[in-house]
Write a structure and sequence with these properties.
2 domains; mainly alpha; rod-shaped; 4 helices
Amino acid sequence: MEKQKRSCTILSTNFNYQYSLKKETIKKTIFALAISTSLIAGISLNSCQSSERKIENAEENVIDAKQDLREIRVDSAIKAEKIATAEQWKIFKKESDIKISYNDLRIKELKVEMRQAGNTSDANFNKKIDEYELKNKNLKTRMSDYAKSQSDWETFKLEYNHDLSELGKALKDISVKNIK
């Protein structure tokens, strides 16, 4: 019996040993499986998030590119308006030269009127004529300066035409008799 007990004990110990080995192996397998499952889930979630993020970034880039394109179009349209075409410039220059020449002629006429009226000593009248003559020369200078730079066409054209017409009106309104 003792032999049987011993052999049962050995079998029991052997069985316990094998059972604990299997138990350890199963625990390790389950642990490895749990870790690998967690890693796979983490990687797949992370890769899905990256794709979504990539799509969002691509959409943002497309929106930014469209906005940049709109701004470039607007800027080029503004630049096109700011610079006169050759034909516009040619017409504007001819018209302005005619008006400036007319102003020169009118100033010379006023000086002749002054001499004929015998009021050569009228300082106020001389001062006005000299002032108008200087304004006319300044308009000539502005025209040649713009021809060199050609920037902001619309603004230049409006201001220049305004100043030129104001000088023309002043020259029409002045005469030897109404200066006091």
